[in-house]
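Today's session is about reading a structure prediction critically. Students often jump straight to the picture, but the first step is always the sequence itself: look for stretches that repeat, for charged clusters, for runs of hydrophobic residues. Only then move on to the predicted structure, which in these notes is written as discrete structure tokens rather than atom positions. Here is the chain we will use throughout the hour.
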Amino acid sequence: MRVEVRSRVPGGDRLPDVLVELAQEQTTVRELIRAAVAEQVRAWQADGSRCRALLDRQYLTDDDIRAQAATGMIRLPDREPVTPDVEAEVARAWRAFERGTFALFIGGRQHDLLDERIVLRLGEPVVFVRLTALVGG
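Below is the predicted structure for this chain, in token form.
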């Protein structure tokens, strides 16, 4: 089964929408995230530095932001343009999901647990939404 996964980040560049190939309709949130991140990395392999920046923007955690805020400036890490390691990016995305850095919606319903079993339906939208705090809140 092929599922389109869209990533949304308020106010800026975002990871590409990707088609994810799954063996069956039933899976877990964890495996859906694994498949989507692997496809996002593959989609941007030709431009490693842009891929790195987009992955950082999507999955930068609150802990990363707090640590940078203490220095007086929040920015994406400076890194050499190296092709991202898929397994490391998947692990980072799982941590970010568990910390509430981004939300996962399937057919308009939010899913909160990595090991939650989900059933995907053909044409049903899957969206990763980067969550950001409101100013003053």
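Discussion point for the tutorial: The longest helix spans residues 29-43.
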